[in-house]
Amino acid sequence: MKCAFTGHRDMREDFDFLLFERYLEELIKNRGADTFFDGMARGFDQFAALKVIQLKSKYNVRLVACIPFGGQIDTMRAEDRQKYEYILERCDDVRVLAPQYYPGCMYARNRYMVDNADAVLAHFHGGKGGTKYTVDYAKKTGKQLIII
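RESULT FIELD:
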C-alpha cells in the first residue's frame, strides 16, 4: 500500500501528534503501507517525513520525496533547509517533478502524490489552499482519505 501525506504548513497547537503516530503505525502494521510520498514543505510534510524516518528502524518502509521543482530548497528559511536536507539524505527515492518553478507546480506535485497513492493521510482543519485542493482531489479520485 502506498500513502501520500498532505497538510498545513502551520500546524495547529491542538494537533494530536500521538494520534498521527498511531494512524501511521496502523497503516503500516495492519494495512501493509510500505511507501510514503511526501511533498517536503515545512510544517506537516516535514513532520510526517521525520516520523517515517523514525519508523524505518522498526519497519520495512520507503520514503519518497516529491519535490515540486528543482531549487525548492532555495525558497526556504534556514531552519527549514536543515530539516529538508536531513530528510532528503534519508529518503529512499527523490522525484523532482519540474526543473524550475512555475505557477501551479505545487498543485501538480499534490496530484502526482495522490495519483500514485492508495490512501492519503491529511492534516486538514479547513480553509483554502493546497491542502484543501489535495483533500478534494483525493475525494474526487476515490482515494482512501484519513483526516487528522
